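Final report, results section. Input specification for complex C-07:
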Amino acid sequence: MPLAVVGCTHQTTSVSIREQLAFQDSCIKPALNHFRKEFPETETVFLSTCNRIEVYTAHPQENNLPSHQDVAHFLSEFHDVPLNSFNDDLFEHKGSDAVRHLFQVSGSLESMVVGEPQITSQVKQAYNWAQDHESVGPLLHLLFQRALRVAKRVHTETALAQRRVSIPSVAVADYAKQMFHRFDDKTVLVIGAGEMGQETLRYLIDEGVQDIMVINRSYAKAVAVAEAFHGKALPWSQLDEALATADLVIGTTGAREPIIVSSHFQDVMSARKNRLVFLLDLAVPRDFDPQISRLDNVYLYGLDELQEVCRNNSALRQAEVEKAMRIVRGETDVFMQELNHQATSPVIQRLRQQVQEQAQVETDKLFRELPDLNDHQKNKILQFRHRLLNKLLHPTLSALRDESHNGSPHGLLEAVKRLFHLRD
Amino acid sequence: MSGVTVFCFWASYAVAFSLEVSRLLFQSRVRHVVLLSFCGAGLLAHTIVLINKSMDGQPIPLSSLHDWLLVLAWTLSAFYLYLTICYHTIPLGVFLLPIVLGLVTWAGWFVEPSPHQLQQWFWGILHGGLVLLGSVAVVAACLAGAMYLVQSWRLKSNRTFHKNVALPNLELLQRINHGSLMIAFGLLTLGFGSGIILAIARNPDSLSDLIFDPTFLAAIFVWSIFGFLLFLQHRRELGGRKDALLTIMAFAFLMLILPVIYQMEKNNWHRGTNDSRRDLQTRFSIDADGPMPEQGGL
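Structure output:
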């Protein structure tokens, strides 16, 4: 089968190597040109994300497909990275394994966070780039279009993407979005500079949050975090004012005791005229006194609650993974059958053409020998010829079709060529 | 067509309601189609009954409490069917269908059908229509309030629904509640005003009697309650849950006061002892030529 993928992923290769092998947007075009110079007539797509670098290749003749070593040398040369630093980490899949792999990747079954939706758009982007640089042909067109269809099926027919398993994604998707209709008019306050708080902030920015305030006992740290997210750093003394303004508050300090107690927050709620507030306590120990959750219009969630949801979602997601894998397997089988059947088309076409030509010669000869035949009789003979040819060819064509269901029917194709004296 | 009765669509809505409730308990692939079929069948039967009524002489059946309740229930079930098709994950029927069933039950078994011709056709229809639309907005505010309370309780207690069941977010529900209440107040105010014009148009001398009429007083009372609620929301004095709770209480109060007024009006009519009251009834009540909701104060 003239399809292959060579690459490395977060499962096999360290992040430092992946960073060196990654194709930045600006170097995709030179990389594709370089690859095409080395392997002309090879269809190529580079899929490069933070978790994987994969080179998909296809060639009408399997023998001319770049090998594992060819791709490894290309990556080493192009990125100027020693071959031995990553060669053992590279994987290679060919034929149906390569197809299944791409379907799993596009369906987000191979992602670090299974079900995350970004990978589908990254696959689409990689395919578009390759299209723009005319490095895709009929095989990779078919493969990538089908991969995107598989991703859509996985997304719509399973709940894989709905079951989030990381604390920040659960906090935003399962809680914040249940409270707020839109985020572009909301103010987020981050108290502290914890990593999980910043991760949550990234999810909130994806949802449209623009107004970000960061407060920390160390003003310098607050400034650093605020700058990273285009937010505003506030001194610790302005905590109460910030609490009265914010719609979402993320607590992520390293304080040993709650920094906000219930009585304190009651005053804050009076100042905010009981406006709805979402408090996310990602600190250990807690930043917010749990009693605060009893206040009206206050929704407080801590790590324990979020972790429990993550655990439940992980279990539910496993069932969805099975469902998604069934879709991938089914689509791979269908794709391979179509591909194998396509491989028989040139032979079938030549066979039909040759038989038709021979029949035409014989029919012309017959008509010359029987000049008294009228048009009606001639038509009858032509119809008879058409039916007879179809009946004679039917067993051969059916055998080719059936054989293509089980793999590439190379042997049978060769036999047909020899039996019918088909020329290449 | 004439064999279609109130019970036909009441039963269809009841089945649709039980299917909606079952959504909260277990998942099923065919249920949504069955639910829509029952609701659609109910709405069709409901429409046939209303068409039959309009063919009896009322182009728009709003002239009696019985008809008005049926039209209100029809509007709400059409609203429900549309929203359920568009937003199938929201178990709207759990909140809305009990109201529809309650209205149909009330109209079908507790209010006497009494078709009457409208003399002041324009003002009568305008009044009945405005109060009807205002009531739909009140129901929408109440629904949003009820869903807000459930969603708030779910989020506070950290509970989850089944995969295919979801409620809108709190912010949206609060907006719907507030927006519906504003629309309701506006429509009810206009309906109330058109009711006064209607009474005056029938009998210009009745204005002094009008202010002592219990229906009129009840209407002012209910209108004031909604106005006060809107004022509190506008001042942001209460916050989400209390707003929602108060809207539901106001709706419940409206639902309680309507039958009381209806019964009071009906008893007065049957007794017929007080001539002045009877005069007033003739001008501004059930068996007169004005639409029925006026008696409920709205």
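Chain A has three domains: 3-163, 167-306, 345-419. The longest strand of chain A covers residues 3-9. This concludes the modelling results for the funded period.
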